[in-house]
Each structure stands twice: as structure tokens, then as C-alpha cells.
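Homework help board

Subject: predicted structure for assignment chain

Our instructor gave us this sequence and asked us to write out the predicted structure in C-alpha cell form, then describe one feature. I got the C-alpha cells but I'm not sure how to describe them. Can anyone check?
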Amino acid sequence: MLTLAGPAIAFLFGVLFFGIWMSWRTLCYLRWLAAAFFLFSLALLSHILLIPSDLGLNTVVNCTLYTAATLAFVEGNLRRLSLRSNHLLNATVAILVVGLTTYFYYGLPWLHGREYVMNFGLASLLLVMALRMRRVHLLLDRALFWTLLVFALQFFVRTVLTMGPKGVIGYRASMSDRVWMMQSTFWIWMNFSFLIFTVLIGLLSSAVIAADIVAALQRKAGTDLLTGLFNRRGFEEFAAGQAVRMECQGRSLILFDLDDFKTINDTHGHHAGDAVLSQIGSLLLQYMHSRDAAARLGGEEFAVLLCDPAAGEAEEIAERLRRGIANIRFGEVGLKGRIVTASFGVVELRAGEGLDRALRRADELMYTAKRAGKNRIVANWS
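My C-alpha cell output:
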């Protein structure tokens, strides 16, 4: 019964991950992890229960299932970290593993050759994946990385230490050989290691998924749904975190407000106003680098926080935004031909200055721009 514990646990984790994915479709990697655990469960059952009963067909089927499970697992973990899989490498290894395993049964019968090919081939895929995950920083991610690394390496060690002599080449295994195999050190260690690592990897993956869901909820709470930018709360949290981590030697703030936006809502309705705001959000996202942030602070007011801008860069970005906003052409009924403009205030954050104070200074400059005729930029670097 202990032998069947592995596939049962793998199946339960597959059900768990699939259920979570049904509720959190944005976490696309979950479907790959669910598929990996389902396939791994089927591979173990095929291997243990001899389904199908023909030894040759069983060899090919469980090899294919193990390989598919490994590929899905690699894809899921890399997608979670926004890393691209090397599909050519993965496909090549998969074809070699299944092809050579089949050959070492039907072409040149060799039991040990099949085990070496399958274990070393799939371990190589896992090892490459683990090494690509080595730059993760969060504690849970580090724990998962080391577990996956050890899991990949144990394939090599376990196979070499427990397979024994190379076996007889040219001898096709019989049912008595299968009985011997199931009583061998290799088989016992394989099932024990699969059971332990299925539990470890399943639990760590569950913890990582839970952390991802919490992070997604936090991002959602800090995101303006209309524009996809930060809302005020998210913007303040981003700025505070950036200051605590001391990521930037200097920071600049761009604050702007759309001119006469109330007339758009009053004349054309809120759906037209929403279309304008959405377009402004899309424009802002084009100018953001990974360490910058953009937000809709409320109504028609937007802000951009720049990390380590070059001299004069903040004003240049503000000018590009000003021209970009004026050049937007709206296709919505009633807005065709309408030109939208904005007034800007630009400041450099002083040493130790908080975001609130910088926003107040930028706000004063922005209203200076409005009083001076709108559709312009006022900056102060003192």
C-alpha cells in the first residue's frame, strides 16, 4: 500500500492545483503544474500496476507519461517566474528519452539501458530548470529551488548506486525479471524517493502558490482597474518600499491633471471620460521602466515616479507625455476630433523627502501651469 501512496498523493496535489487554477485563471502556470502531477500519478500507476500488461507497451507508455509529466512541470515552474522554456532542448531530450527507451526494448533489448536513459534524461531536464531558477530571492522560492535541485541530482546518484551490473544486452525482460526488479534496491529507493519528494515539492509548491495569490490580491488592491496603473494606495506603497530598499540614488516626480476634463464627462458622458482615462493609462505604460511607477491618483490626476533619471530626463518625459496626450485621437462617438491636453508639475525629491511632500510641491507647480494657460509644464529643481 505504501507503493500506491505516491500516485495517490500526486493525484491529490493535481486536484488541488487544478481547483485553484479554476478560481485564479490569471495564474496560468497552475494548469501546467496540475497537469504535471496528474501525469506523474498516471505514470506511477502504470509502472506499479503494469497497465497495460504487455511489458513492451507498458515500458513505452510509462516512459511517455513520465516524460510528459516532467515537461509540464518544467514549463509550469519556468512560467511562474516569467522565464522562457527552451522548447527545442526539451523536445529533443523528450524524443531521445522515449525513442531510446523504446529501442532498448524492441530493437536492442537492454533493461539497464532503458533505466539509465529515462532517469538521466528526465533528470537533465529537471536540473536545467532548477539551475535557471537559482536567482530567486524569496525564502519560499529558495526552498523550492534547493528541493528541486536535490530532486534532480538524486536521479543520477540513485540510478548509479542501485542499478548494479550493466545487465545482459540483447536479453528481453520477462515477467520474472519484473518481479526481481520490484524487489530490487533500485525499485525500493525509487518509490521511496518519489514519495518523499512528491510530498515536499507538492507542499512547497502549495506554499508558493498561496504566496502568489496573496501578492496578486495586494496588487489588485493597489491597482486602478480602469487604467491598469497603480492607484494612490499602490503608488504610496511602491514609493515607500523603494525608499526603504534604497533602490534609487535620486527620484523625480511628474504630476499632471487633464485640462477641462469635467466638460468631457458633462458633454459626452462618463463612458467617454473612461475611454480617455484608459488611453492615458496605456500611454503612460509605454514610458515606464522596471524601476519606475505610474499611477492614477484619482479622477483625472496622474503621477509618475522616476528612479535615477538622467539630468533633464524627467522634464523630457513630461514633454513627451504632454505631446503624446495632445496627439491621442479618440474613436468614441462624440470624441472624434476632440483634443485632450494636460498641465504638468515636475519636481526632484529632496534627500529624506516623503512622497506626500513631493506631491504637494508638484501639485503647486501643476496649478501654476494651469493658471499660465494650461497644456504646459512647470518644473522646480530646488
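Reply (TA_rk): Your C-alpha cells look well-formed. For the description, you could write something like this. Residues 2-221 form one domain. That's the kind of observation they're looking for.
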